Amino acid sequence: MFRYAAFVSLLAVGIVFQLSHGVEVNVRDKDENLCLYAKLMVNFSVSYEAADNKSATAEFELPADVTTVGSTCELNTSSTLKLNFGNGHSWSVNFTNAGKVYQADTVTFSYNLGDKTTFPNAASNESKTVAVKPKITDVAVDTCYSCQSKDTLESDLVNQTLWNVLIQAFVSNNSTSENYTTCAADTPTTPVAPTTHPTSLPTTAPVTNATTPTAPPTTTPTPTLPPPTTGKYSFKPDENTTACLMANFGLRISYKQEEMNFDPNGTSVSGSCGVNSSELVLVSTQQMTIKLTFTNDTKKFRLHALNITGKTSAGVAFSEANTNLSMWQAAVGSSYMCNKEQNYTITNQLTIYTFALQVQPFGVKKGAFSTAEECFLDSDLSFLVPIAVGVALSFLIILVLISYLIGRRKSRTGYQSV
Ligand SMILES: *[C@@H]1O[C@H](CO)[C@@H](O)[C@H](O)[C@H]1NC(C)=O
Ligand SMILES: *[C@@H]1O[C@H](CO)[C@@H](O)[C@H](O)[C@H]1NC(C)=O
Ligand SMILES: *[C@@H]1O[C@H](CO)[C@@H](O)[C@H](O)[C@H]1NC(C)=O
Ligand SMILES: *[C@@H]1O[C@H](CO)[C@@H](O)[C@H](O)[C@H]1NC(C)=O
Ligand SMILES: *[C@@H]1O[C@H](CO)[C@@H](O)[C@H](O)[C@H]1NC(C)=O
Ligand SMILES: *[C@@H]1O[C@H](CO)[C@@H](O)[C@H](O)[C@H]1NC(C)=O
Ligand SMILES: *[C@@H]1O[C@H](CO)[C@@H](O)[C@H](O)[C@H]1NC(C)=O
Ligand SMILES: *[C@@H]1O[C@H](CO)[C@@H](O)[C@H](O)[C@H]1NC(C)=O
Ligand SMILES: *[C@@H]1O[C@H](CO)[C@@H](O)[C@H](O)[C@H]1NC(C)=O
Ligand SMILES: *[C@@H]1O[C@H](CO)[C@@H](O)[C@H](O)[C@H]1NC(C)=O
Ligand SMILES: *[C@@H]1O[C@H](CO)[C@@H](O)[C@H](O)[C@H]1NC(C)=O
Ligand SMILES: *[C@@H]1O[C@H](CO)[C@@H](O)[C@H](O)[C@H]1NC(C)=O
């Protein structure tokens, strides 16, 4: 019985990584299994009463130096992330599991006005607590909740701005999920990587001018990436011949939660041209390598394999490949073209977006693209016009035919009645 109770009420032990910005924590249950993971940044703006009866505002960040004492994981039903920092402050969020989804119920922020470094001149020494409801709902179980955008939680005296949030509650199998539930603010485009922020609580008291209104935290959505520059790539087997493989496109790749544009400027091109297979290798100055393998089978070509290696803005190297694709298909001797933006899922983690695409991997003549076969999206609905005309014409013919038949029958009955 006691054993069972001990099993249910898991004691959570936390491991804290100190990041250059933001905070990253792993909370483990008493069996040392990872049960809650969080990486996030929080800015606080706290309005308090200063000694001279004036209202003051303190602004500070959640420092990297936190402890997770008080965090709990109850067997897949509820859990709490508690981050203690500075001189008696804490920030916590509790999660409940509803089977298929989980959510954060409350964010509780306790701050100690006795910390005169953070709250200079505060009239009182007491600790205050505010509770707000975050917008972290309907997170699919076994996925990480991800929200790079800023989200400000407002209450009477405290504004909390959360951003670069990555949280997984109810972690199973001891490892965080590679699948994400992304907040609405992050879609359709995911923002670029975080910029660096100073993280520790200010050691010297900020001179807060009590009468000067402080700028409220902004909640502007992160800007969308500009369309990528269209690169014009061609591969010649040697100096004296004309190109045997040509490709023009603007390329954006989306790896995990990050989107990046492929910069054609300074990109080196290599490759090979064969009868059954051709290859184009692009190495950009931003150290991204893209290998495209085309095959020619039975007079049609297609992009068969794609291998992209690169680094995220955070410096994490990745390599994603799919060798079983059937993209960009057209007849050998023609080129494939798609001007409209297209997206293709290459792997679970990687999606590519192409812009102003034209490619010809086989049978290039005189260094120019042959007739293009356009993708479906490029063709607008104008092809419906001849069909409509045809349908209208057939209708007319049928109408004439029917009236002719009726006319004949009428005239016939006319003869009979006489
Ligand atoms: C919180 O944000 C609101 C709206 O931006 C602002 O009016 C208010 O002054 C802010 N409060 C604090 C304590 O910063
Ligand atoms: C502060 O305000 C309270 C009531 O609001 C008043 O009794 C007190 O005298 C004021 N103190 C100062 C220093 O103005
Ligand atoms: C958070 O606070 C730091 C310092 O107080 C400031 O530099 C930064 O711009 C703030 N970030 C946001 C998103 O408000
Ligand atoms: C707050 O604490 C400091 C030092 O502990 C003390 O000097 C001060 O009088 C206290 N202020 C109030 C309002 O209790
Ligand atoms: C991600 O989700 C897909 C489909 O829902 C699933 O097949 C896959 O196993 C998941 N991957 C991880 C790492 O959970
Ligand atoms: C606040 O700033 C104004 C002008 O910038 C100054 O005149 C005033 O003395 C300052 N007040 C405090 C409490 O620092
Ligand atoms: C390229 O062509 C020129 C003239 O046609 C010739 O002189 C030269 O040797 C060729 N170079 C190569 C590498 O074939
Ligand atoms: C390409 O890069 C070079 C050197 O970085 C720069 O001078 C040039 O303007 C760039 N060209 C374009 C089209 O961006
Ligand atoms: C494509 O493959 C066919 C045989 O499958 C071959 O006859 C044809 O020459 C190839 N085309 C090119 C341009 O290599
Ligand atoms: C290309 O494929 C055809 C049919 O699959 C095969 O007969 C031919 O030998 C291949 N050519 C080369 C150069 O691999
Ligand atoms: C993709 O390219 C990288 C680097 O060239 C290589 O290490 C990796 O094995 C390739 N992946 C596949 C599936 O070919
Ligand atoms: C991908 O393309 C399809 C149409 O081809 C579109 O409906 C969808 O919204 C696109 N997805 C993204 C993430 O752009």
Please characterize this protein's 3D structure.
- There is one protein chain.
- This protein is mainly beta and 418 residues long.
- It has 2 domains: 4-185, Beta Barrel (Porin), CATH 2.40.160.110; 231-379, Porin, CATH 2.40.160.110.
- Helix content is 10%, strand content 46%.
- It is built from 2 helices and 29 strands.
- The strands form 4 sheets. Strands 1, 6, 7, 8, 9, 10, 11 and 12 form an 8-stranded antiparallel beta sheet that branches.
- Strand 20 (268-273) and strand 21 form a beta hairpin.
- Residues 307, 309, 319, 321, 323 line the site of one 2-acetamido-2-deoxy-beta-D-glucopyranose.
- One 2-acetamido-2-deoxy-beta-D-glucopyranose binds at residues 275-276, 296, 298, 332, 362-363.
